[in-house]
Amino acid sequence: KSGEGRAKAERMFGLMDGFLKNDPVSLQKDILDHVEYTVARSRFNFDDFEAYQALSHSVRDRLIERWHDTQQYFKRKDPKRLYFLSLEFLMGRSLSNSVINLGIRDQCADALNQLGFEFEVVAEQEGDAALGNGGLARLSACQMDSLATLDFPAIGYGLRYQYGLFRQVILDGFQHEQPDYWLNFGNPWEIERVHVSYAVKFYGTVEEEFLNGEKCKVWVPGEMVEAVAYDNPIPGYGTRNTINLRLWAAKPSGQYDMESYNTGDYINEVINRQRAETISTVLYPDDRSYQGKELRLKQQYFFVSASLQDIIRRFKEAHNNFDDFPEKVALQLNDTHPSLAIAEVMRVLVDEERLGWNRAWDIVCTIFSFTTHTVLPEGLEKIPVDLLGSLLPRHLQIIYEINSIFMDELKKRIGLDYNRLSRMSIVEEGAIKNIRMANLSLVCCHTVNGVSRVHSELLKTRVFKDFYELWPQKFQYKTNGVTQRRWIVVSNPSLCALISKWLGTEAWIRDADLLTGLREYAADAILQQEWKMVRKVNKMRLAEYIEAMSGVKVSADAMFDVQIKRIHEYKRQLLNLLGIIHRYDCIKNMEKSNRRKVVPRVCIIGGKAAPGYEIAKKIIKLCHAVAEKINNDSDVGDLLKLVFFPDYNVSVAELVIPGSDLSQHISTAGHEASGTGSMKLLMNGCLLLATADGSTVEIIEEIGEDNMFLFGAKLHEVSALRDKGPATKVPLQFARVVRMVREGYFGFKDYFKSLCDTLEGGGDFYLLGNDFGSYLEAQAAADKAFVDEEKWTQMSILCTASSGRFSSDRTIEEYAEKTWGIEPCKCPF
Ligand code: H53
To answer: GO CC terms on record (predicted)?
Structure first.
C-alpha cells in the first residue's frame, strides 16, 4: 500500500469504536431485545436463567464486534501467529470473566438492577464449560486469557466435546459418575461456523503413483468425517484484542461414497454415517493413563487434521511459498496429545504440496515446540503400532521414516550403544510395538519446555536424560502461572478492590509484579483490619455454602484448611486424612479442660477420581467415613469438621479459594510437575502447607520459608528412602491411625483393607509414613501461627504481595520471547 493508503487504513482502524454502546441504558435495551427475540420470552416475564441468557447474548454481541476487529487487524498485519494445540481447555464460566475483561461489569449490573435482577444471581445460572480434566486443562484456559490480554496474535485449537468432564455424585460416600451434557441449554459463548469445515480422513491404504514422472505416495482413505468449527471469543483485559479459541465438532461428511447409496440399505447407511459424530462426543476422564484406545487416537487426529487444514489455508491466503511458513507459524503442542501434528505436517508438505522430504523436514523442525506436564515415565503417551497403522497408515510410514533417519544419525553420534539407541527410538519394540509420542516430539520440536524449574531438572537428569545429552539446547522451562483476572478480579472482588485501594491503581490487573507494592503495608494495622474483614466475609459465604451443601454447620472463626485437586495417590489426600484422624484422636483423648486450647479447624477436601482409579475412589469413601464419625461426635463439636466438596470444578474453586486460610500441596517430592492450585490460593492470601515439590520450590523463594509451613522428604532423599524399603522412621502415631482405619473404626473394614495395604508391609511408595511426623509438626506450626491473628494476617498479605511471579502473563511473555518468537499485535482502540 502507498503511504497515503496506509495512513487512511490506520485512521479507519483508529475509528473502529464499537457500534454497541456500553452505558446501562443501551445495555438494558439490548438485554430486553434478546429476551424477546433470542430467548423468545416476554420482556414482562422472564426468570434469572432467561436473564442470564439475554445478558450473555448482549455481551456476546460486544465480543463479536471486537473479535471481528481483531481478526481483521491480524489479517492486515500478518504477524507470526501462535497456534496453541490442546485437547483440553477448562474454561469454567464465561459471563463474569467476559464483562470484567470488556470493562462493563458495573454497567451490566446496573442494567440488570433496574430490571429487578442481581448480577451475582444471574451469573450463578451459568454452568461450567468443563472440556478438560485438571491442571493441564485449566492452565490452557489461563494462558488463553494472558495471550489475549498481552495482545499476542494467537489462536487456540481444541475439541468441542458434547460431554465435558463427568459430574461427580456422591452416594453413601461413594463416587458415581454422571455424564455432563453441558450443551442442553445452548451455549451463548460459541459461534457455529457452518462454512468453516474440513474433511478429515481415516483408515484406508497407501498407494504409490507416478505424477509428472515422480514416484509419490497417495493415501486412499476408507472413511471421512467432517470437522465443523465453533469459535469461542477470548477477550483480553484492558485491550480491544479478542482472540479465538476454535473448537472442532465432528459431523457426518458430505463427501460420501455414492456407491454405498445404491446398496438399498438406506437406513443402515445413514446410521453408519451418523456414527461419525461420536469422535467429539466425550472427553476422556483419565488424565494420565493412556490405554491405546482407538477413539482417543481418532480424537487426536481429528482435531490435529482440522486445525492444520485451517492453519495452512490461512497461510496460503497471504503466501505462496512454504519457505515462509516458519516466519508466520509457531505450533505449540500442549503435552503429546496433539503430537500427530508433526506427522501430519510432513504428510501435507511431502504428499500434497510436493516439497520433497528434506525441505519439508527443515520446515517441521523450526515450527514445533512442545511442553510436557509430567514427571513420570509411565505418564508418557504410547500408541500401539497396529492401531496407528490401521487408522492412519500413511502417518505410520512417515513416523517410521523419521525414526529411521534419526537412528542413523544417532548411530553416527553415539556409536552402537544399543541400549541407548533403543531407549531413544521413537518405536518401542516388545510384545506390543508402540510409538512413543514424547520421543517423536523430542526429535521433531525445536524446544521442549518443562512447567517448573524442578520439573525441568528432572526432565534433563531422568525422564529425557538421553535426549538432553544429545540436544541440551532444546531444553527450556517456563514455570506455570495463573491469571489474576479470573482468580482475583472475578472470584474475589472485595479483595480486588482492597488491593487497588492500597496500591492506588488497578494496573496490577495487567501487571501482577506490582502486587509487591503491598509488602510495605503488610504490617499496617489498618490494612490488616480491612484484609481480615474481606477474608471473613468470604469465609462466611463459604460457610453458608457448606451448610447448604452438606448440612454441616461450621464456624467462620475456625481455620479453613483446604485440599482441592484431582484425587491421586501422589497428591496424598490420604496423608491429609490420616492427619485429620490423628487430630480427632488427640481431641478425643485429651483432658476436657485442655480442649479449650485446640485451634478449631474446618477441613475441606474436594476433587474427582478417574472412574477406573480404584484406590482414588477408596480415598473419597474414606473421607466420607471419617467425616461421618467426626462431624457427629459431640466431644469434638466445633473443634474439628471435615467436609468433602462434591463435583469440584472451576466455579466451586472460585468460591472456595477466596475463603481459605490454609491450603495443602503435599505431593511426594519429585511427583508434581508444577501445580497451579497453590498459585491461585497464594494470590488470595491463603497460606500454604506444602512439600518442596514442583513450583512450590519457586514459591518458597518468593515468599520465604517463614511465611509458609514446609515439611517432608526432599527430592534428593526420596529414592534413597524408597531403596531403604519400609521406612525406619515411621512414627507410632502413623501406625496407630492406619490401624484405626484397618480395624474398622470408621466402618467398611474390608473395603479399606487394600488402601491400608498400600501404606504398610513394605509398600508405601509415596512415603506417607516417612513424612507423617514432619507433616504433624507443620500442622502444629500452622495452629500456633493462626492464633496470632496479627502475624497471620501479615503473612497472608505477604503471600498475595509475592504472588506476581505466578501470573500466567509472565509465563506467556517468556514463551513468546524464548520459544515462539512472536510479538504483540495490538488492535487500535
Ligand atoms: O499439569 C499441570 C501441572 C501439574 C500436572 C498437570 C497434568 C495434568 O493435569 C494432566 C496430565 C499431566 O501429565 C499433567 O500434574 O503438576 O501443574 C499444568 O502444567
So the answer is: cytoplasm
Average of pLDDT values for 363-390? 95
Least confident range from 236-250, 307-321, 654-668, 760-774: namely 760-774
Residue 653 lies in a domain: yes
Closest approach atom of ligand 1 to CA 672: 16
> 375: domain CATH number?
3.40.50.2000
Contacts of 486 (CB under 8 A, 6+ apart): 92, 97, 141, 142, 145, 654
Is residue 336 within 6 Å of ligand 1 at its C-beta?
A: no
Measure 758 CA to ligand 1 centroid, in angstroms.
Answer: 24
Binding site membership of 135 for ligand 1 (Cβ less than 6 Å):
yes
pTM of the model: 0.96
459 and 490 inside one domain: no
Please indicate whether residue 165, judged by its CB atom, sits closer than 6 Å to ligand 1: no
Which helix H or strand E contains 450, and what residues bound it? strand 447-450
How remote is the CA of residue 248 from the centroid of ligand 1, in Å? 23
Nearest-atom index, ligand 1, CA of 139 = 18
- Supply the pLDDT for residue 576: 98
pLDDT tens per residue across span 448-472: 999 999 999 999 999 999 999 999 9
User: What is the distance in A from the centroid of ligand 1 to the CA of 358?
Assistant: 35
Give pLDDT, residue 640. 98
Rounded CA Rg of the chain: 28
The three-state secondary structure class of 195 is strand
Indicate if 461 and 374 belong to the same structural domain: yes
- Pairwise CA distance, residues 353 & 358, whole Å: 13
